[in-house]
Each structure stands twice: as structure tokens, then as C-alpha cells.
Write a structure and sequence with these properties.
This protein has helices at 3-15, 18-25, 29-43, 59-85, 99-104, 106-116, 129-137, 183-186, 199-210, 224-232, 242-250, 280-296, 308-311, and strands spanning 48-51, 54-57, 91-97, 120-126, 143-146, 156-171, 190-194, 216-221, 238-241, 254-257, 265-273. It is an alpha/beta fold. The strands form three sheets. Strands 3, 4, 5, 6, 9, 10 and 11 form a seven-stranded mixed sheet that branches. A two-stranded antiparallel sheet has the order 1-2.
Amino acid sequence: MDISLFKTFVTVAKYRSISIASDVVHLTQPAVTKQIKLLEEQYGNRLFERGGKQLKITREGTILLEYANQILATYSQSLEAMIESADQVRGNLRFGSNLTLGIYILPKLVRLFSDSYPSVNFEIFLGNSEQITKAIRQKELSFGFISTEAVEETSVVHHVFYGDRVIVVVGKDSGPNGRIMGWNELEQLPFIGRERGSDIRETTERWLKERSIKLKPRMELNNTEAIKQCIQAGLGFSILPWCTVEEDIRLGQLCEVKAPYFEPVQEFYISHYEGSKFSRLEKVFLEFLFHTIESRSLSTSLSRILPPQLKKLSR
């Protein structure tokens, strides 16, 4: 059986659209439709139904989707095995990441990895923690990086990967970097925060609630870069992970405020399907990742070590 049929089917199931899938797999829309019909003929069941603007996967299609993902994963592992036999590190590396790590941390690490292994190509899916966890559960991704383990999913396990301190930031016209401001003063200033449900908001609100500190919300945004622009424009202050504002502070565009006893840490996790086996390429990447983070001290809170399941990767 042609392996490309399963790749096309999984792509259509993911986007619920023939047109989008055709762009992703680089086939014409008639060719995508033909491949889906071939699978339907081989399995004797309809895989999709038209439901409004999007396709709706059938019950039989859902069953096949799980096996299709397993077939593609096995095929990828077979390619990795051939690469391993040739003692080479190359191929396609696919994983997921939340936005904070995907924008501010992983690009630096991927660049360092690519310097050592230039024959590796990356496919990184960016989303929120729930989306990444769902993709892992459905075996669309082998592993991913998220910023909360509160997502209730027993088939997916989480290990601490990275910890970053959370700081109070103001615009450059609000005073010198490192100035001290009391919470009584901060409570009177307009606060610009992330949207409800975001990981950084949950971390911040939990710390503030425990100390009966009530900020004065002025604006909610679902984008950290937009929040930084608002702060630079003098619209208020915010509380963000250090990795998202490090460069802005260094360039003098934002300033850190020292608030009394404010030392929360935003933890990030690497997540994978329980009992999953990593390919050789994935093992090399994860080993490189943890070694680089620990040796370069990318965060003051990086005193973590590899959990037992992942220690094996570095042997």
C-alpha cells in the first residue's frame, strides 16, 4: 500500500479541508480527493462527510486515523533505523511547543543544534498546552514543550524541562531599570496582562491571590509581543517571564521593577506519550537540548536534572 495515502488522509483529517491539505502535501485538490477515495474503497467505508464549511470525519475515519498515525510513525522509525545503521544524524524532526518556548527559547537551541547537525530539518507545531497535549495523545507528535501540566491527560506524561523567573516590567520612561516599587504603588497603576486561561496569568494570579494583592486591570491581550508594545507606549505595566523581555531590557526598551518578595517561577515541561520510544534523532536532539541548557545556564532556575526516563537518552 502506498504510504502517501495515509499521509494525505491524516493531513485532511487534521485540517478538515481538501484545499488546505492539498497545499500541505503538495498535490492538486483532485489528486487529494482521489487518494481519499482509494482509501475508502480499500477499507469499504466512508472516511469523511461534508459538514458545513468543513469536512467531518466519520466514526470509521476516526478509527483509521489512529492506525494511520501509527503506520506513519513506524515508517518514520524505519527510516531512522536506516540512518542509524549508516551512523548519520539527519532527517526530519517534528515536535510541538507552546508559544513562549517556541518563540523565545527553542530557536536559539535549534540554531545551536543545526550548527552541529546541518542535515536535520525541523517541523515545529506551535500551539497552547492543550493543543500540544492533544496532538501527543493522538500520536501526531512524539513529544512537545508546554508550560503547564494541569491538562488532565493520563496517557501523556510531563517532565520539568525549564524554569524561568517571572518579573514586573514597565516602560523605559517609568524610571531606571532595577528600581524598587511597593505593591501599594503597583496596585494604583494600570495593568496589562495575558488573557484568561494563559499559563503566565495563572502563575501570576495564584501568587497575588495568596497575598491579597489586587491589580488594576486595563487591558488583556493574547500576545506577549503586543503586551510589550503597549508597555513601551506607556499604557501600563505587566508581569512576564524573563525570557520574553530579556532582549528588550538589554536594549533599554523596557525596565524591570523590583517588587517586594516577588520571586515566582514559571515552569515548562517536556511531554510525551506514556511508554513511547524515541527515535535515534529524537534522542540525539533531546540529549543535546538538556546538555546545552544546563551548561549555558539559560536561566537562574536551571538547577533541574533529567528525570529518570530521559536520563537514558544521554547514555
